[in-house]
Write a structure and sequence with these properties.
The protein is α+β, with helices and mostly antiparallel strands. The protein has two domains: 1-278, Probable tRNA modification gtpase trme, domain 1 (Gyrase A, domain 2), CATH 3.30.1360; 281-361, Aminomethyltransferase beta-barrel domains (Elongation Factor Tu (Ef-tu), domain 3, Beta Barrel). It has helices at 7-12, 32-41, 61-68, 116-126, 151-157, 203-213, 224-233, 267-276; strands at residues 2-3, 16-20, 23-28, 44-47, 52-57, 81-87, 93-103, 106-111, 133-136, 141-147, 171-176, 179-184, 193-199, 220-221, 280-286, 298-301, 304-314, 321-328, 337-342, 345-352. The strands form four sheets. The chain has a six-stranded mixed β-sheet with strand order 11-12-13-10-4-14. The protein has a six-stranded antiparallel barrel with strand order 15-18-17-16-19-20. Strands 6-7-8-5-9 form a five-stranded antiparallel β-sheet, with helices on one face. The chain is globular.
């Protein structure tokens, strides 16, 4: 397994480690529940250095990304970021991505760990006819995330000012603990927070500085398990569960990110789906009690299986079972009553529109 620059830190903190997409990653340090509540109420510190970082540079970098991705990246302003997808010719999703425009001719594409190699190869191939260069910088970059309502205060206590007024999905160059970072107001938890890109060789310094600065606010290290329940409550799709090559952005309810006025790979296939409508769509499911739907459990209408759960858990914040899954369009209306087969017993559920949780404003 590959290890991040923070591997020894995780071991010293007593983290439970697991194989995630070929990386040794911390699942938890204390308990899933404690870390989840810490992020919702204070802040959590995450190591996301397994993610892929790919730079696209050159006079036609924006045009190359317009062709490669579905989201018209050339129209993103310098200093801003955009959520987009890399699709196959048939419209299936190969990965969902966040792309930052660092300079006029320089973009940073952040890919999921399991798909980083695929994204790099596809970007290289799709940029061939453009005056643009694609470079995999993943091994040189570490990525930390400070997520939760106390995150901004922690940065302020460290003398950081660049985050003041920084908009959601925006990034800025900053010094944090005298370390140069790309500081972005992005995240995958449903909370306010920041992601910090730093030279891999200085990742330990940054982690220790953030951890120490967060002690007064009771910021805790947080692992993949609570990140999964946090993003589920926030209704954020996960590649390999809600997203994959067998479904398009329109199936996942994300057709709004597709810019049909650009000539991207998969455009014709996605236009057909947009015109005809998908036959099944992603929905939220909510219930009562303590039995939690899990990924792969059948979704039933009476005795008939009509879909499958893609993600599910007992919500730590709400205290109820929640899930996401795909169902036929005629059973996707909020308020529709269905059930989930939980180990041979039907659990009544109601179709709801995600997110299940929205942070207080």
């Amino acid at each position: 397994m590959r290890t991040t620059p923070l591997h020894d830190v995780h071991v010293a903190l007593g983290a439970t480690l697991t194989d995630f997409a070929g990386w040794s990653m911390p699942v938890r340090y204390d308990s899933d529940l404690a870390e989840h509540h810490a992020v919702r109420q204070r802040a959590g510190l995450f190591d996301l250095s397994h993610m892929g970082e790919i730079e696209v540079t050159g006079p036609q970098a924006g045009e190359a990304l317009d062709h490669a991705l579905v989201g018209a990246l050339s129209r993103v302003a310098v200093g801003r970021a955009k959520y987009s997808m890399l699709c196959a010719d048939d419209g299936g999703v190969l990965d969902d991505l966040v792309t930052y425009r660092l300079e006029e001719e320089r973009y940073l594409v952040v890919a999921n760990a399991a798909n980083a190699d695929v994204v790099y190869r596809e970007l290289v191939a799709r940029a061939e006819s453009f005056d643009a260069t694609v470079t995999d910088t993943s091994s040189a970059v570490a990525l930390l995330a400070l997520q939760g309502p106390a995150a901004a205060g922690v940065l302020t206590s460290m003398g950081v000012t660049e985050h003041d007024g920084l908009r959601y999905y925006a990034g800025v160059r900053a010094d944090v603990a005298s370390l140069p970072v790309l500081l972005a107001r992005t995240g995958y938890t449903g909370e306010d927070g920041f992601e910090l890109f730093v030279d891999a060789g200085r990742a330990v310094e940054l982690w220790e500085a953030l951890h120490e600065a967060g002690r007064t606010a009771e910021v805790v290290p947080a692992g993949l398990a609570c990140r999964d329940t946090l993003r589920l409550e926030a209704g954020m799709p996960l590649y390999g569960q809600e997203l994959g090559p067998d479904r398009t952005p329109f199936h996942a309810g994300l057709g709004r990110i597709v810019a049909f006025d650009t000539d991207f790979v998969g455009r014709d296939a996605l236009q057909r789906v947009a015109d005809q409508g998908p036959t099944e769509v992603l929905v939220g499911l909510a219930s009562e009690g303590r039995r939690a739907p899990r990924a792969g459990y059948p979704i039933l209408d009476g005795d008939q299986q009509v879909g499958q759960v893609t993600s599910g858990a007992l919500s730590p914040t709400l205290g109820i079972p929640i899930a996401m899954g795909y169902v036929p369009v005629d059973r996707a209306e909020p308020g529709t009553g269905l059930s989930v087969d939980v180990r041979g017993r039907p659990l009544p559920v109601e179709v709801v529109e995600p997110p299940f949780y929205r942070r207080p404003r």
